[in-house]
Amino acid sequence: MSRPHRIAIIGTVGVPANYGGFETLVENLAQFHHDSKAPEKVTVYCSAKAYDTGPDRYLDMDLRYVPLNANGAQSIPYDMWSMLSAVLKGTDTILILGVSGTVILPLIRLISRARIITNIDGIEWKRDKWGGFQRKFLKTSEAIAVKLSHRVIADNGAIADYVRAEYGTDCAVIAYGGDHAVQAEAAPLTEIVPPARYAFNVCRIEPENNVHMMLEAFADNADFPLVCVGNWDRSAYGADLKARYKDAPGLRILDPIYDTGKLKTLRAGSSAYIHGHSAGGTNPSLVEMMHFGVPVFAYDCMFNRHSTDDKALFFSDAADLRAKLANTDPGTLAANGAAMKALAQERYTWAAIGEAYFDLIRTTARA
User: Fold this and answer.
1) Which candidate, 127, 141, 147, 203, has a CA 20 to 30 Å from the CA of 259?
2) Which Gene Ontology MF annotations are present (predicted)?
3) Can 6-177+349-366 and 182-347 be said to share one CATH topology?
């Protein structure tokens, strides 16, 4: 009797997920693997620094721990260590999430016959937060990942277009699920008594997410305030915005909320979602919100147009957002919310995403 196909998943903090798009992806892949009784043996590499006690298994997946942080400066050796360990354990397929450690792929391909599948995430090297050296390193890592992986995954059609133009390589386009957000059990809020009518946003507080633009648009809009949740104290950019707008009548600025039940309460009670992301492909926060049937105002960029199938209400700056909020009629808003929900149910469910990942792994193994 032949042994089961061995898969290693590399590049996340680990499971169970606390927060983060890739971590949520892996947690839901684990659930799909369990529910579908998939025959593969899967190992998830986890950061020992992130878990006080590390169980050996999560659902049907084995967990293996690396004594480094998965993020920050240690992310590169963390991913390299994980890949080398997977090779030494006789792994058949290595699923790499992100390109931080892919500079080691020339060695991996030399010493192993494992099939390599890499989700390159967003076009990471273009993000505003990186300096010159980091940009060059990430661009090099991306190029190595595309050229030396047996298959490349893009989470957004715009990223697939970029990879095809830049490297002449086709990508499998597999996004993220968002139905876990609407399936969560709503929980009472202790952080805020929500206004009777409000818009909502949750994101990392970074310039490329255009938080300054959203806050400027809503600052004086006391009749329809924005509830904005994020990690304000992690950067000077966030701290400055929080200090500048803390008393604005049209804003409710909240520190990070990780409880999915509380987030469901805020999402379900909102009258609009404001999505400022300008980079990163398909953003989990957007596809999660689309399941709630709330109208979406999205920053006008190719990623958001792909994610919403050109059906969101797009804005280009604070003045444009203010004008669209004031002038979009109720019928258009209701139709937009219905369109967002229908698209989410068609494209962004974890059952569909899990099936797509395991189908890709199986076809790549047979190629």
Assistant:
1) 127
2) glycosyltransferase activity
3) yes
Say yes or no to pLDDT of 104 above 90.
Answer: yes
Q: Which one, of 33, 85, 83, lies nearest residue 60 by Cα?
A: 33
Q: What kind of architecture, by CATH, is found in domain 6-177+349-366?
A: 3-Layer(aba) Sandwich (3.40)
Asked if 235 contacts 205 with a C-beta cutoff of 8 angstroms, the reply is: yes
307-338: burial string, b at 16+ Cβ within 10 Å, e else: bbeebbbbbeebebbbebbeeeeeeebeebbe
Region of residue 121 (phi > 0: left; psi between -120 and 50: alpha; otherwise: beta): left
To which H or E segment does residue 296 belong? strand 296-299
Q: Which amino acid is at 313?
A: L
C-alpha separations of 206 from 75, 214, 283 in Å:
20, 12, 14
> What is the distance, to the nearest Å, from the Cα of residue 148 to the centroid of all Cα atoms in its chain?
24
Q: H or E element: which one contains 45?
A: strand 41-47
* β-pairing verdict for 226-229 and 251-254: parallel
Determine the Cα–Cα distance for residues 218 and 91; give it in Å rounded to an integer: 51
- Return the amino acid letter for 201: N
Residue 135 has what pLDDT?
A: 80
Amino acid identity for residue 319 in this structure: A
**Which of 5, 8, 14, 4 minimizes the C-alpha distance to 86?**
8
Q: Is the dihedral of CA 222, 226, 231, 234 positive or negative?
A: negative
* Cα 352 to the center of its chain, rounded Å: 16
- Measure CA 120 to chain center: 12
Read off the pLDDT band of 80 (50, 70, 90).
very high
pLDDT at 130 over 70: no
The answer to whether 22 and 98 have CB atoms below 8 angstroms apart is: yes
Domain extents in the chain: 6-177+349-366, 182-347
Dihedral sign, Cα of residue 45, residue 48, residue 50, residue 52: positive
Q: What are the DSSP calls for 197-219, one per residue?
A: S-EEEE----GGGTHHHHHHHHT
The CATH code for residues 182-347 is 3.40.50.2000
